[in-house]
User: Which sequence fits this backbone?
């Protein structure tokens, strides 16, 4: 890589190389987030009002949970392209179980997590035991899960218990429930990061062969990482239901792609073994705020997708360029 | 189910190396599955394997096959190479092309060249993003999907107009020789072109070298970045070509004409035996994979299977086929 500096392309890359510093990606996501928050505050007059904070945080919770779910498998050297479909099938199953009855609330929530974890288990078993590439397996299971979601709930409908939807918009100690849940999710990651499973996930993602040699049960860790991913997706499904109040068999359509983008913006290497769930969470928040600010900045409707696409690519580039590059493993 | 199938394959593999190589060849497996699907279709619904039906299935497969040609090249380039923007790019090419043509043969040349140039620029940006900005291909091309969608909205103001030129429609739909639609001959020509590009040109050799081992290729003096960038350019240009052929088939254009081609295009490449990791594969397999997917979809439609079950079956078939030949080495060497 260093022996061919005579081509302009390589010279540019050398220059870029020189700009980068150690662990820059960690603060890059914080900087991007700060810019996103500042932009939002500038373009949306009522951004910091309680009402706006409630609705913003309410939409953020599922995105952050899905980004965290994606982070677990990406750190483990995999990827889950079925996470959006898992969230969808978990949420429609839960809404069918809940059927608007208060007494079914807990059962419905448990079903959401169980279905999510079940989807993860299917992915994990196929990937670890059949030794197929995660990107293709989860690409295929995504169509299986979204087909299953359509069987469970063919058209949008159903309702969640009123208390779930109401509680989700409650304000406690001056902060909306969504903000508390976001803090709880970050707390959850702090706990998870200290478990042996997640430490093994880092090891397997960093170097499966070395992990195997160090007596890490690689297939078991892979399977459990997908189960954990799916279970987090189940939690995201509950948050989605609480936010929308009803079921939708297409709700997770864009979530997979958002989750991967969030993970990259959050400074997690898609090659595995590096990054943190906190980064993914901040990446998800940044991504959502970018969309939000474009909506409020008064960009003409027809130009909105173009502007948001360009801004997202810029954010991805900033994160990717600042990623420290100890091993360039392509 | 797939584990059982795999065990049978391993038994065969133990028996003799030459025989096993044929049985485990993805193209052979995909071909056998396709023929089996056609036979099953004929058994459950007589007429499914009729000449007209088969020609029609091949015609539907050709659009997917052309879009998937670019996807094959991108996936072969390795490094997680994948192009999620092909569907949107194909749609954009169709929209630009039909607006230039306006249903008039006078605009047919410009109506084909201009969209393909636009696609080449999109592919160039994808390639630069992946190589220079180091954005993982998956998210780079995903972001590009958003940008192209944005370009479509700006270009059309949310309303697509224009029509394919009659000459293009004749080329695609017209029965030129032996009563076969022209697009099939075009597809064969494109298949030969792509195979030649991959097997007989410097670009092709470099592509396989980069896909198999980027570092080794770089150390051997292969211009890695240029090769990868060209792969993405090819990916977008073939996608655009597929979109143009599709609009020749449908004549009028829609805002989401070819959007749904992205996922089947990836599936066709994988079914055709090209490794998702890059460096191994070819276009013949992809073409067979495109036919397999099309026949499967027709069969499920013929059986009156709802779209929910259809997507489930598609996913299961992909995993099942992959478990024949997509397996990676054990950690315990």
Assistant:
């Amino acid at each position: 890589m260093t022996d061919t500096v005579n081509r302009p392309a390589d010279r540019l890359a050398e220059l870029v190389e020189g700009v980068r510093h150690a662990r820059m990606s960690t603060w890059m996501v914080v900087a991007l987030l700060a810019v996103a928050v500042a932009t939002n505050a500038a373009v949306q007059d009522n951004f910091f009002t309680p009402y706006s904070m409630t609705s913003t945080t309410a939409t953020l919770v599922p995105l952050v949970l899905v980004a965290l779910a994606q982070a677990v498998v990406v750190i483990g050297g995999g990827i889950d392209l079925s996470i959006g479909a898992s969230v969808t099938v978990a949420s429609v199953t839960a809404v069918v179980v809940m059927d608007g009855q208060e007494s079914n609330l807990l059962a419905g929530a448990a079903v959401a997590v169980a279905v999510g974890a079940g989807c993860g288990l299917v992915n994990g078993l196929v990937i670890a035991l059949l030794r197929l590439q995660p990107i293709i397996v989860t690409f295929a299971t995504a169509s299986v899960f979204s087909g299953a979601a359509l069987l469970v709930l063919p058209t949008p409908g159903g309702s969640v218990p009123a208390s779930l939807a109401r509680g989700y918009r409650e304000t406690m100690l001056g902060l909306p429930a969504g903000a508390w849940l976001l803090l709880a999710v970050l707390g959850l990651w702090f706990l998870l990061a200290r478990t042996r499973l997640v430490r093994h996930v880092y090891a397997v993602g960093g170097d499966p062969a070395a992990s195997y040699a160090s007596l890490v049960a690689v297939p078991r860790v892979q399977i459990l990482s997908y189960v954990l991913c799916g279970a987090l997706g189940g939690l995201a499904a509950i948050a989605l239901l609480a936010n929308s109040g009803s079921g939708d068999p297409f709700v997770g359509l864009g979530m997979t792609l958002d989750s991967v983008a969030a993970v990259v913006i959050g400074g997690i290497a898609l090659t595995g073994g590096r990054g943190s769930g906190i980064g993914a969470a901040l990446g998800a928040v940044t991504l959502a705020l970018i969309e939000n600010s474009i909506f409020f900045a008064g960009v003409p409707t027809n130009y909105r997708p173009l502007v948001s696409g360009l801004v997202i690519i810029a954010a991805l580039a900033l994160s990717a360029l600042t990623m420290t590059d100890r091993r360039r493993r392509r | 189910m797939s584990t059982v199938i795999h065990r049978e394959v391993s038994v065969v593999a133990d028996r003799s190396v030459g025989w096993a190589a044929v049985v485990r060849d993805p193209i052979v497996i995909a071909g056998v599955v396709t023929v089996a699907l056609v036979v099953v279709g004929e058994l459950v619904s007589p007429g499914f394997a009729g000449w007209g039906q088969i020609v029609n299935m091949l015609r539907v497969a050709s659009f997917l096959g052309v879009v998937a040609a670019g996807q094959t090249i991108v996936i072969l380039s390795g490094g997680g190479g994948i192009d999620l923007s092909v569907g949107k790019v194909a749609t954009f090419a169709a929209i630009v092309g039909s607006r230039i043509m306006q249903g008039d043969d006078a605009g047919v040349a410009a109506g084909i060249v201009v969209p393909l140039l636009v696609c080449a620029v999109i592919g160039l940006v994808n390639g630069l993003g992946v190589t220079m900005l180091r954005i993982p291909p998956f998210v780079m091309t995903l972001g590009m999907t958003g940008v192209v969608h944005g370009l479509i909205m700006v270009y059309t103001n949310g309303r697509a107009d224009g029509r394919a030129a009659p000459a293009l429609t004749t080329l695609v739909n017209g029965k030129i020789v032996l009563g076969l639609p022209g697009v099939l001959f075009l597809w064969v020509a494109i298949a030969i072109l792509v195979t030649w590009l991959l097997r007989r040109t410097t670009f092709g050799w470099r592509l396989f070298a980069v896909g198999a081992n980027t570092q080794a290729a770089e150390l051997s003096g292969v211009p890695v970045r240029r090769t990868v960038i060209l792969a993405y350019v090819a990916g977008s240009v073939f996608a655009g070509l597929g979109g143009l052929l599709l609009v020749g088939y449908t004549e009028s254009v829609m805002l989401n004409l070819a959007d749904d081609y992205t996922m089947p295009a990836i599936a066709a490449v994988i079914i055709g035996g090209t490794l998702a990791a890059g460096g191994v594969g070819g276009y013949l397999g992809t073409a067979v994979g495109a036919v397999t997917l099309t026949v499967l979809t027709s069969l499920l439609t013929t059986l009156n299977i709802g779209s929910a079950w259809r997507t489930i079956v598609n996913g299961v078939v992909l995993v099942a086929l992959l478990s024949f030949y997509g397996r990676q080495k054990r950690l315990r060497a």
